[in-house]
Design goal:
The protein has 20 helices and 20 strands. The structure holds thiamine diphosphate and magnesium ion. This is Acetolactate synthase.
């Protein structure tokens, strides 16, 4: 019988499941995996590419970014409990954003002797846990352990199908070393998936009710955080809100749902629009507004639409929900548009509403951009956002922002052209995410913009090493204010005029002295520049774009910005 080691069988099966990359960080649990990889290669079995990723957080971020671009779940393979714990923040981020990832890590050998694969070095005793999976269980939709080598195909099929079912998310499989060392039949490993992911379809009655409410609304509002589905539904969504004169607010948007230039895009502040809205469509938002600050009209009707409208995995979340429409936005958005197609319309009222929105959105954009252009005090995040939006206009580019450039002041128009860190806020996300995106789409311009704190959370030496090793010409823009500004702002928000806010230097927020990040990047032979003069910003961005597009080499701008 033709057999192979279970360690190698994993890769064979992942290939059959459509996995292109295994982002791996190996250890002493990996001999059967590495031997299996070499064995499969020797037998000319098609495999996903296994990549050496020198930090687990970067591996998770890359799988996340690859999915955002390709829509296909990838695999991450880590070292026992210690590697897994480094990857846990990435799992939390992926879970929060419904990003499917096949996460695996080895189990240190449980046998001490007399079995192939048994313990050899002291870490095998040191890394044993009773419940290793507990490190990521809350972030995973499904978890299990490989008990027998012949289970590789079945368990990976199950993991993959569950990860890709609505609502999507990461799954985890632990891989004991002794089991990985055993042989398993090769037959069937290259066949098609044995399980189909479940796509949830919207309930017809809920959809009809949502359509009826929106068509009859006087002041309809959409709040959208995680985009509007796929390329086709993104385009359809933009046309639909214009056709019906519906305001779209992008409060804390992590994906672009509509062009920032669209006449119905009223900006990021839901406050004034929520105060007057009689029907609100919450389109895939974890937290659509700030309950203590923004008030709904008492008679407003609220529709929640998304893969999991109640976000059932989140313990507390009580935004009012009168109608719930479940499904991926690529399905529910066109379905809602169709459901409204035949409903009565008050053309005069819609036209008036549309004109008012166009005026309001134009005024919001103009005010934000005029303010951003004011550089009398120095460079601000808003100014860099303005300059980057202009520089990228008309180019096929995606921006991954993490306390970096700001949507709206930053002009973004196309589907997938904007992403922000997940609401789980596990920092160090945008740099590896941009690397994963660049891997998925080598010809796209991938820009990671982030705070200095976020850059350091990303393990920048690791990320620059990956960019060089894999020839990924990402552009990194660090908005360096030499502090954790968001933490300072949070203290000042909760204790305005308090001791901390009045202190010369607020405790636990400064990042001084700031390292010379251009040298961190240069260590991996990136093109890098520091920018301190506002007048230099546009030319510096243009020069960096030339480097990434023409030399196809990674670039970094360390832009010194004022605290917000
Ligand atoms: C892994 C992780 N650790 C800590 C935090 C808490 N945190 C939230 S915002 C922030 C500061 C971010 O600083 P920076 O990226 O420089 O952006 P700034 O606010 O200064 O513009 C920190 C430390 C977090 N979100 N994630
Ligand atoms: Mg900072």
């Amino acid at each position: 019988m033709d057999t192979m080691t279970a360690g190698g069988a994993i890769f064979t099966r992942l290939k059959a499941l459509g996995v292109d990359y295994v982002f791996a960080n190996s250890g002493t649990d990996f001999p059967p995996v590495i031997e299996g990889l070499a064995e499969a290669a020797a037998k000319e079995i098609a495999l996903p590419r296994a990549l050496v990723i020198p930090h687990e957080h970067a591996a998770m971020g890359m799988a996340h970014g690859y999915y955002l671009m390709s829509g296909r779940s990838q695999a991450v393979m880590l070292h026992t409990n210690v590697g897994l714990s480094n990857g846990a923040t990435g799992a939390i981020n992926a879970a929060c954003e419904h990003v499917p990832i096949l996460l695996m890590s080895g189990r240190t050998p449980v046998t001490e002797e007399k079995r192939f694969g048994a313990r050899t070095v002291p870490i095998a005793w040191g890394q044993e846990m009773r419940d290793q999976t507990a490190l990521v269980r809350e972030a995973c939709k499904w978890d299990y352990e490989l008990k027998f080598p012949e289970q590789v195909g079945g368990l990976l099929d199950r993991a993959w199908a569950i990860a890709n079912s609505t609502p999507k998310g990461p799954v985890y499989l632990s891989l004991p070393r002794e089991t990985l060392c055993e042989a398993t039949p090769r037959a069937g490993l290259e066949g098609p998936p044995s399980l189909s992911p479940v796509a949830v379809a919207p309930d017809a009655a809920a959809l009809a009710e949502a359509a009826r409410l929106l068509a009859g609304a006087e002041r309809p509002l959409v709040i959208a955080q995680r985009g509007a589905g796929d390329a086709a539904s993104f385009t359809a969504f933009g046309r639909w809100v214009e056709a019906w004169g519906i305001a779209v607010c992008s409060w804390w948007a992590t994906h672009l749902s509509i062009s920032t230039e669209h006449p119905c895009h009223v900006g990021a502040d839901p406050g004034p629009w929520l105060a007057e809205a009689d029907v609100v469509l919450v389109l895939d938002c974890l937290a659509p507004w700030w309950p203590d600050r923004h008030a709904l009209r008492p008679d407003a009707r609220v529709i929640h639409m998304g893969p999991d409208p109640l976000f059932s995995r989140f313990p507390v979340r009580n935004f009012r929900c009168d109608v719930a429409v479940a499904g991926e936005s690529a399905v529910t958005v066109p379905a809602l548009i169709d459901a409204m197609a035949g409903l009565p319309r008050d053309e005069a009222a819609i036209a008036a509403r549309r004109a008012r929105l166009a005026e309001g959105s134009e005024a919001t954009r103009r005010a934000a951009r005029e303010k951003a252009a004011d550089v009398r005090r120095g460079i601000t995040k808003a100014y860099v956002s303005l300059c980057l939006g202009e520089a990228l206009d008309g180019l096929e580019a995606s921006v991954f922002s993490e306390l970096g450039t700001q949507l709206g002041t930053l002009k973004r128009s196309e589907y997938r052209s904007w992403f922000q860190e997940p609401h789980s806020g596990g920092l160090g996300w945008s740099f590896p995410c941009a690397l994963g995106a660049q891997l998925a789409e080598p010809d796209r311009i991938c820009v990671a913009t982030m705070g200095d704190g976020s850059y350091m959370f990303a393990n920048p030496t690791v990320c620059h090493q990956i960019a060089e090793a894999l020839a990924l010409p990402v552009l990194v823009i660090v908005l360096n204010n030499e502090e954790w500004g968001a933490v300072r702002a949070s203290v000042a928000g909760l204790y305005p005029g308090g001791h901390a806010a009045r202190a010369n230097e607020m405790p636990l927020t400064a990042l001084k002295p700031s390292p010379d990040f251009t040298q961190t990047a240069a260590a991996s032979r990136a093109w890098s520049r520091r920018v301190t003069d506002p007048a230099e910003v546009p030319a510096a961005i243009a020069a960096a774009l030339t480097v990434v597009c023409e030399e196809r080499r990674q670039a970094l701008l360390d832009i010194r910005v004022l605290p917000d």
